[in-house]
Specification:
This protein is of the alpha/beta class and 572 residues long. The protein is 36% helix and 22% strand. Bound molecules: histidyl-adenosine monophosphate.
């Protein structure tokens, strides 16, 4: 494959995973599977159903939901122009307009005349060379083929300076010289590669004496859409809700598990590709989607889930960020409070103080924190209905025995939140201590062109959850129950038969090899962490009794074939 810069020797340097991405390897993957199996169980118990949305979406979806001024949208998204197409016909037409002479009998100096015999022109096309022209040559009137002298040019139009385009031109000249020698014999042939000038400037310089590279002014690329790797999944799920008119189903309870992408500075617990376990409850108001009972159910589900996974020291931080009514008054108060101090803050805060003052709370710059600490608090600006909603959420949580801490500085770094907002933090995670976050987004559907569809959801950072669980990793490793050690020629067959039988009993079986000596089999069994080793030698097969050794206790017994599975299972 041509990589663009083919003057440089291609080295053998090792290719590594991209910064901020990582491979999940065994035994860690067992922990990931344990987490995912457990959350699927919990979601089933709460009647949530899986939804899978695409990993990339139109950029506008995130700009309109998460918000232009958020860190995520303004700094962290992986965005690209998709469907970029080189408009070959347009650049040829424009080039001819700029270069071609209208006078077939006399080509003026510097102008060109399109020429060529039909079979040779067809050949050129096949090679990827688009034009054969004569430049600056007088031709005999009324006899277009009768050229008196001058220069032939083969012209290729390409999106960039590439080896392929140059090879095609050179090949065309070779064919012309050998197969059409009579026609081309007397004339020098110039090879010309025309590329859009924007691209020509950024193309690697190509050393070629043979080909003239002509940067041609103009943009000859049409680009269909701007796409983004999803930085979060609420927007995608609400888009799907609207697109598939899911309000007909009443209240929807979705969950999804998958990778998200943010160009953040990588550190422990913060990656550029990370995984979220996302849940959303969304539906028309008539289905009860606005009820504080939904908020409480989500929070209670999370408490259950974390407890079940064995995450002990979590803290639920709870706040209400109010609704659009409250937000107007609060934003106004923030703007006022920021006016005299904004100049002392970081550049982002100065901008946000004007465009979206709530986002000032996302600032991580230490010097700005004392100023932010003194800003007005959202809890003082909640209207009656928001206050009541928040109180009811708290009452249900207390009744259900879910502990929480009120934190009226928690506004969350995404614009779509209304009313309840929350995060669960965990001490063991250090700086990136938010194991999950979520909240209500009652106006999101409308802002994406859908009907009223209040909703609430959360996303767990699965990477962080796994980190928090890491200490107990040992507990969820599935190690082989038994390592089967075939001993001597022909024993692989017998071992395979036994392994199949034992696996049917749901046992985890690791299989050795008849070429291994017994000592090597013991070493392999120990390294795999097997609980038992089962010796399969000729004598054992004959007697239909097998030596089964418990690798932890060292106890070895001879077990009849029929009792093997039971014996291994009962020792669990
Ligand atoms: P978020 O707070 O941006 O919310 O992300 C949720 C969780 O994803 C965080 O608490 C953290 O555990 C994890 N996370 C975020 N960025 C990274 C990263 N770079 N590396 C590792 N983990 C990360 C949302 O995404 C919302 N969509 C949540 C939501 C759902 N709200 C309503 N419904």
């Amino acid at each position: 494959m041509h990589t663009g810069n083919w003057e440089l020797p291609i080295g053998n340097c090792m290719i590594k995973a991209v910064r901020g991405t990582r491979d999940l390897l065994p035994p860690d993957t067992a922990l990931w599977n344990f987490v995912e199996a457990s959350v699927r169980d919990v979601f089933r118990a709460y009647n949530f159903h899986e939804i899978r949305t695409p990993i990339f979406e139109e950029t506008q979806l995130f700009a309109r939901s998460v918000g232009e001024e958020t860190d995520i949208v303004s700094k962290e998204m992986y965005t690209w122009e998709d469907g970029e197409r080189f408009e070959e016909k347009r650049i040829i037409d424009e080039w001819l307009r700029a270069n071609q002479s209208d006078d077939p009998s006399h080509v003026q100096a510097g102008r060109v005349n399109v020429q060529g015999s039909p079979p040779f022109l067809a050949k050129l096309k096949e090679l990827g060379v688009q034009l054969q022209v004569w430049r600056g040559i007088p031709v005999r009137p009324n006899f277009p083929g009768g050229v008196l002298g001058g220069r032939v040019e083969f012209v290729t139009f390409a999106p960039r300076v590439s080896r392929d385009a140059i090879t095609a031109l050179v090949k065309a000249r070779d064919i012309a010289k050998s197969e059409y020698s009579g026609e081309f014999g007397n004339y020098p042939i110039l090879l010309r590669l025309v590329v859009p000038d924007e691209v020509a400037r950024s193309s690697p310089w190509v050393q070629t004496e043979d080909v003239e590279i002509e940067p041609f002014a103009g943009n000859y690329f049409s680009s269909s859409q701007t796409l983004t790797l999803r930085p979060e999944n609420t927007a995608g799920i609400v888009r799907a809700y609207i697109e598939h008119k899911m309000w007909d189903r009443g209240l929807n309870k979705f969950y999804s598990i998958g990778p998200m992408f943010r160009r953040e500075r990588p550190q422990k617990g913060r990656y550029r590709q990370f995984y979220q376990i996302d849940a959303e409850v969304i539906g028309p108001p008539s289905a009860g989607s606005e009820s504080p009972a939904r908020d409480a159910e989500i929070l209670e589900l999370l408490a259950t889930l974390l407890d079940r996974l064995g995450i002990k020291d979590w803290t639920l931080q709870l706040n209400s960020v109010g609704c659009p009514n409250d937000r107007v008054a609060y934003n106004e108060a923030l703007r006022k409070a920021l006016e005299p101090v904004a100049a002392k803050m970081c550049a982002d805060c100065q901008r946000r103080a004007v465009t979206n003052p709530l986002r000032v709370f996302d600032c991580k710059v230490p010097e700005d924190q004392p100023i932010i600490e003194k800003l007005p608090r959202i809890s003082h600006y909640l209207d009656e209905s928001c206050r009541k909603h928040f109180e009811q959420v708290q009452e249900i949580l207390k009744a259900a025995g879910v502990p929480f801490t009120l934190n009226d500085r928690l506004v969350r770094g995404l614009d779509y939140y209304t009313r309840t907002a929350f995060e669960f933090t965990h001490g063991a995670l250090g700086a990136q201590n938010a194991i999950l976050g979520g909240g209500r987004y009652d106006g999101l559907s409308e802002s994406l062109g859908g009907p009223s569809a209040p909703g609430i959801g959360f996303a767990i950072g699965e990477d962080r959850l796994v980190l928090a669980l890491k200490e107990s990793a040992e507990a969820v490793q599935h190690k082989p129950d038994v390592y089967i050690a075939p001993l001597g020629p022909g024993m692989d067959r017998e071992a395979a038969r036994l392994a199949r039988e034992l696996r049917h009993h749901d046992l985890v079986v690791e299989l050795g090899d008849e070429s291994f000596r017994l000592k090597k089999s013991f070493e392999a069994a120990t390294r795999a962490g097997a609980r038992f080793i089962l010796i399969v030698g000729e004598n054992e097969v004959k007697a239909d009794r097998f030596a089964l050794k418990n690798l932890a206790t060292g106890e070895q017994v001879s077990v009849p074939h029929a009792e093997l599975a039971l014996r291994i299972q009962s020792a669990q």
